[in-house]
Amino acid sequence: MASRKEGTGSTATSSSSTAGAAGKGKGKGGSGDSAVKQVQIDGLMEMMRSLRHVNIDHLHVGWYQSTYYGSFVTRALLDSQFSYQHAIEESVVLIYDPIKTAQGSLSLKAYRLTPKLMEVCKEKDFSPEALKKANITFEYMFEEVPIVIKNSHLINVLMWELEKKSAVADKHELLSLASSNHLGKNLQLLMDRVDEMSQDIVKYNTYMRNTSKQQQQKHQYQQRRQQENMQRQSRGEPPLPEEDLSKLFKPPQPPARMDSLLIAGQINTYCQNIKEFTAQNLGKLFMAQALQEYNN
Amino acid sequence: MSRFFTTGSDSESESSLSGEELVTKPVGGNYGKQPLLLSEDEEDTKRVVRSAKDKRFEELTNLIRTIRNAMKIRDVTKCLEEFELLGKAYGKAKSIVDKEGVPRFYIRILADLEDYLNELWEDKEGKKKMNKNNAKALSTLRQKIRKYNRDFESHITSYKQNPEQSADEDAEKNEEDSEGSSDEDEDEDGVSAATFLKKKSEAPSGESRKFLKKMDDEDEDSEDSEDDEDWDTGSTSSDSDSEEEEGKQTALASRFLKKAPTTDEDKKAAEKKREDKAKKKHDRKSKRLDEEEEEDNEGGEWERVRGGVPLVKEKPKMFAKGTEITHAVVIKKLNEILQARGKKGTDRAAQIELLQLLVQIAAENNLGEGVIVKIKFNIIASLYDYNPNLATYMKPEMWGKCLDCINELMDILFANPNIFVGENILEESENLHNADQPLRVRGCILTLVERMDEEFTKIMQNTDPHSQEYVEHLKDEAQVCAIIERVQRYLEEKGTTEEVCRIYLLRILHTYYKFDYKAHQRQLTPPEGSSKSEQDQAENEGEDSAVLMERLCKYIYAKDRTDRIRTCAILCHIYHHALHSRWYQARDLMLMSHLQDNIQHADPPVQILYNRTMVQLGICAFRQGLTKDAHNALLDIQSSGRAKELLGQGLLLRSLQERNQEQEKVERRRQVPFHLHINLELLECVYLVSAMLLEIPYMAAHESDARRRMISKQFHHQLRVGERQPLLGPPESMREHVVAASKAMKMGDWKTCHSFIINEKMNGKVWDLFPEADKVRTMLVRKIQEESLRTYLFTYSSVYDSISMETLSDMFELDLPTVHSIISKMIINEELMASLDQPTQTVVMHRTEPTAQQNLALQLAEKLGSLVENNERVFDHKQGTYGGYFRDQKDGYRKNEGYMRRGGYRQQQSQTAY
Q1: Contact A63, A11 (CB under 8 A)
Q2: With CB atoms counted within 10 Å of each terminal CB, which end of chain B scores lower, N or C?
Q3: How many CA atoms lie within 13 A of B795 on its CB side?
Q4: Looking at A38-47, B122-131, B169-178, which range is the least confident one?
Q5: What span, in angstroms and rounded, lies between the C-alpha atoms of B218 and B900?
Q6: Per-residue CA distances from B34 to B185, B217, B226, B506 (Å)
Q7: Which residues, other chains included, contact B695 with Cβ-Cβ below 8 Å and sequence gap of 6+?
């Protein structure tokens, strides 16, 4: 991509020269219900206006967000992306991780919601049953879109130029062995999510218990009712009138499962991050060891 | 008099309205002549009293009649029986007698009976003729009546001397007296009782008519009091007689001498009364229009009254002849003035002036100290009374007067050891004022002083603490203390233990918060003390406040029976110890008293005192370098964030909506005067610094511990506030200093920490406030060094393989043994996984502690474990609903016993369900 901006909540518009998902038309930002969103939309409009001003051919194909140690799988992102994708089918969200990039490898990923998830979100029903019916799991929430970065030749030339001029030290960021901080942070975040997950499960558990308890009560009630009716029948009295059982036993509110799905997705991202990171670091450590042995 | 003491003591709750009611009731009858003033119910209450009195007196007269009959037929046995009944009846009528004075007919029968018995006893012939029963009864009765009459001696002698003394004053007495003169006449006697009764029943109207005749506008109340005084005069004179025991002639002579002035003086008194009443009326004028007419009638007299004021001053000349009589007048006058107390229209200032005039008169006439003391008591009472509202405080001039007055009173009391002062002296009979040989005056000096102390507190509370005025008022404190000291000396001689306890407490309350600089100085320079100049020696001679506290408190511990005084004394004692850095004594006393357990049941002022004491204890511990104790002592006060309120040093604005006006007033009254305040900033600083010294090493040690608890919430709060700051400038406030210091300490940088804690700003704000500032600072530096060393080791031990103790001692500027001991302690407590290598003086790290990542991984594993378990439960639930399918397989990894049981239970349930 030719140009990019950092910071959450800004909009990305891909100019027509950019490869990637090409869109048909401009999309609206969706219904902005939060202040952040409002800012987002304002920024978007501003951007659009500016682009039109300089007479650039442009298409609105999504938005982007920067992230902190890969913690981006959130409700806000889901909602935003859903509204984008709802309006413009081809919309993507670009996730940019500045910390990882600073460590030497450009971290830029494009995501889309899976059609299944789109369905669920359209229904706005996140109850356990609905999710089960949709047969959706955290693995199938987002689909990654491969990114190909194409720059104009002039920029390529500039890049080459710059690379030659840059100091040697800048390049060796890649080989840094001081990794514990990054790993620690990741672990910490992962731990927090695990905690959340745990709580969520407890909540679900309580719900299950309550439901089953109620089922039992309901059952007992029915049985008692039946017995009584039998007795009444034997005495020749009219049976008791049928009562609305759903009124007597209000089923407990099922907890929304979308959050736990999101958390699971987030945990997954973290795990992948850590895996990736440790794999790289192990390689680096072996290299360092070999180097040391060689030196000795 | 008694009225004052009730209002004085329970003044807290009594509103001015109820106070007025209280006063009007007994006085109500006084306005019998002024029908406009007299309301229906007042009359009713009056009637009730009368009837009770009548009933009792009827009983008495009936008994007296039978006794007289028995006397006539010489039936001594009957006499004895009846006499005993009479004694009982009199006992029943006691309350009324107390009010009305001993009835004359009763005195008469006693006197007559005694005479009669003596006659019989003398009559040998008759005695021989008497039967055995009668003779026996005679001797017993004679003994009994002798004993019994001893109580009424004064009355009887006066009666005997002058049976017709007050004949022209009171109709009843007139009747009785004439009866008395013809006491042999039995028939008339019976009749007289009847007439007496009759008279009694129609008393109010009859009396008033009588007095209308006598003087135009005399109040019944003045009449009543006059009555009383007359009884009194009688008793006083007779007392003096009995003292002399010379003979009746002189007494009679004096009686006659007195006789003339009596009437003379009566007129005077009447005049005075008139003047007084007019004055009262004048005050009341604006209030009641109806009264205006009456006022008009008396207009002329009212004019005279203005001239009458000098008349009061002139009066002494008239009195010069007979001292005893003047007693009566003065006291009568006093009572009059007192009657006006508490009434709406009364000009309180004028009242005080009147009383002071009265004292002058009394003093000029050498009326004896008793009267002066009594009047002084009343002046002080009126001074206290001056402000009807509890919230307002005395004006400075009033306050000065009050102090002077109390001082004078004490002068008199010290000069005259034969005066007895007490609350309970006059409760039985109001009219026994000053007659006995040892003067007995009703009034409690202790209550007065306590009230004075209260007033002083009120003045201090209501003065702006930052004004010059406050300083001026504070100068009076010395005077207050002096008075308390004098009263203490006085009560030590005369008072009961309870009174002594109370005054001791008062003394303690004025002593405990003051830092004894002299004693402190002496302590600092014990050897030079002897070589100092004479003057210094004398200065030093004053009792050490510590010794004084010790003495007073011990007395209270031993003698006091009310829990409150002891509690207060203990708290003050602890406070005093703490203030003077006697930490161990203070702590032991606090622990021994077990106050911490039950202080929540105490009343708010005591709780405030307790809080103050705890705070002082904490500060004391801090000065001693006992950070942990300091922190613990201050934790309760500081953690609530309401230190100001808890110490009674100000109201919080926040809770302003929660309380109404009334509560606010009460709380305002509880506030501690400014000069007793504990510096809140100092308090907070001490708390935060001790929290820092505890918390920072602890945080460093448990950096990666998941279950870490904080020692001090408030300290953490401050840290967080500091973190939230977008831009960190150099610290300004005390808190910022502490936060900055904490951050430096976290890195083990003791020098920065030190410079943040101890610098110009902090010195000015906090440290210079300590009496031994330098000592505290030195202690603090050392503490910072030690704790920084610990923090450093906790934080960076994982970096080192080994570290030389010498380096450490250089880094933290501690001597080697200290470093050694600190590290050893850490090793022993298993805080530091290391060992000491003695020959090289190094600390060798064991590296058994997991690294940060390892710790995190462990925590994560733990969390995942619980996650799995939770997840299993969900599954288990499903499995339960679908009927125990996986039961056998699952047991394999179920370790939790309780969990298994629950699972089993569920399976059972599900099985029954299906």
Answers
A1: yes
A2: C
A3: 17
A4: B169-178
A5: 100
A6: 41, 10, 19, 47
A7: B710, B711, B712, B715, B716, B742
In this structure, are strands B842-845 and B834-837 parallel, antiparallel, or unpaired? antiparallel
Contacts of B866 in chain A (CB under 8 A): 198
Interface check B871 vs A, CB under 8 A? yes
3-state SS, A20-75, equals CCCCCCCCCCCCCCCHHHHHHHHHHHHHHHHHHHCCCCEECCEEEEECCCCCCCCH
Place of tokens 């006393």: B589
In the prediction, which pLDDT does B892 show?
A: 42
The enclosing H or E element of A144 equals: strand A142-145
Please name the member of A183, A201, A219 whose beta carbon is closest to the beta carbon of B870.
Answer: A201
Question: Is residue A80 classed exposed, middle or buried when 0-12, 13-18 and 19+ CB atoms within 10 A define those classes?
Answer: buried
Mutation site for A-interface testing, chosen from B853, B905, B910 by largest number of A Cβ within 10 Å: B853
Indicate the angle between helix axes B773-796 and B805-812, nearest 10 degrees: 140
Sheet holding B834-837, edge to edge: B802-804, B842-845, B834-837
* pLDDT at residue B172 is higher than 50: no
Q: With the CA atoms of B754, B756, B760 and B762 taken in that order, what torsion angle do they form, in degrees rounded to the nearest 10?
A: -100
CB contact set of B737 (below 8 Å; sequence gap of 6+)? B731, B756, B757, B759, B761, B762
CA-CA-CA-CA torsion sign (A269, A270, A275, A281): positive
C-alpha to C-alpha distance for B855 and B857, rounded to whole angstroms: 5
**Rounded (10°) CA dihedral B887, B892, B895, B898:** 20
Residue of B770, B465, B505, B739 whose CA lies nearest to B616: B770
Taking the C-alpha atoms of residue B443 and residue B424, their distance in angstroms, rounded to an integer, is: 8
Residue B366: the pLDDT is: 64
Residues of B in contact with A190 (CB under 8 A): 860
* Cα–Cα nearest to B682, from B582, B773, B774: B773
Above 50 in pLDDT, residue B428?
A: no
DSSP string of B739-786, one letter each residue: HHHHHHHHTT-HHHHHHHHSSHHHHHHTGGGSTTHHHHHHHHHHHHHH
Which of B228, B203, B194 lies closest to B64 in space, CA to CA? Answer: B194
In percent, the amount of chain A with pLDDT more than 90 equals 2
pLDDT digits (tens, 9 = 90+) for B478-495: 888 888 888 888 888 877
- Answer yes or no: do A194 and B860 touch at CB < 8 A: yes
Question: Which residue out of B703, B874, B910 would a mutagenesis test of the A interface target, given it has the greatest number of A Cβ atoms within 10 Å?
Answer: B874
Q: Say what percent of chain B tops pLDDT 70.
A: 61
Chain A residues with beta carbon closer than 8 angstroms to that of B857: 187
* Adjacent-strand bridge partners of A94: A64, A110
**Per-window interface: B 577-596 vs A, CB < 8 A:** none
Region of A239 please: left (phi>0), alpha (psi -120 to 50) or beta.
Answer: beta
CA of A180: which chain B residue's CA is closest? B853
- Cβ distance of A205 and B870 shorter than 8 Å: yes
Q: Give the closest-approach CA distance of B705 to chain A in angstroms.
A: 13
Is residue B756 within 8 A of residue B741, CB to CB? The reply is yes
Place of tokens 């004048």: B282
Nearest of A106, A105, A107, A104 to residue A172 by alpha carbon: A104
- Between chain A and chain B, how many beta carbons pairs sit less than 8 Å apart? 48
At residue A293 the predicted structure's pLDDT band, cuts being 50, 70 and 90, is: very high
Contact yes or no for B874 and A197 at CB 8 A: no
- Concatenating the DSSP letter of every residue in B657-688 gives TTS-HHHHHHHHHHPPPGGGPPPHHHHHHHHH
Q: Does B551 touch chain A (CB under 8 A)?
A: no
Chain B: give the shortest CA distance to residue A204, in Å. Answer: 8
Alpha helix (H) residue ranges in chain A: 35-53, 75-87, 98-102, 115-123, 128-134, 153-165, 168-171, 180-235, 245-248, 258-295
